[in-house]
Amino acid sequence: MQHINTPPTLGVVWGESADVNSASRFAVLIVLAGALSLGALPHPREPIEVPFEYSKAFGLMLIRAQINGKPAVMVLDTGSNETIVSPRLVLTKQLSSQNAVEIAKGSGYSGSGVVATVFLRIGSLNPKTYQVLVVDLADLATSLGQDVDGILGMSVLKEFETVSVDLKRHKLVLK
Description:
Layout: H1 17-40, E1 48-54, E2 61-67, E3 70-76, E4 84-85, E5 100-103, E6 111-122, E7 128-134, H2 138-144, E8 150-152, H3 154-157, E9 163-166, E10 171-174
C-alpha cells in the first residue's frame, strides 16, 4: 500500500468547520487589505494640457482659467515669482490696507497689491486654493490692447513636477 504525502495545512484541520471558517476569514482579510492598499499608492498623474493663445500685442501666452468660479484670462509668466489677480475677481472684503505689499520688478510689473486667497482652476484640474497678489491690471490690459485678469506666475506653477510649453500645438502641459 502506497502512502500519499499531503501538504501541510497550517494548523487547519479539514473537517473542523470553525478552523476552516477562521482560515477563510483570515485569507479574505489579507486579500482585502492588499486590494485596499493599492488605492493608497500614488498613481502617476496624467499630464494636463491647457490651450493658450497669443496676445494681440507682444505675443504673450494667454491662458483661460477660472478664479473664484469666474472666467479669467491670465498671462503665462514663468519669470514672475507671484501670481497676480485683478480685484474684480476677488471679494472686496478680503482686501485691506493692512495686507498691502509692494511688488518688485521681478515680474516686469511694479506697484502695490494686496495678498488674498482665491480658488484657481486651470484647464481640467480641480480648483485649488492659492495665495495671490491682487493688483489693478488696467494699465497692463491697456498696453496689451485686450482684457487681462491676471498673471500666472511661479507661485502656482511650482506646484507641478513638470511645466512645459508646446509651441506648435499651443498647449501648456502640466504634470
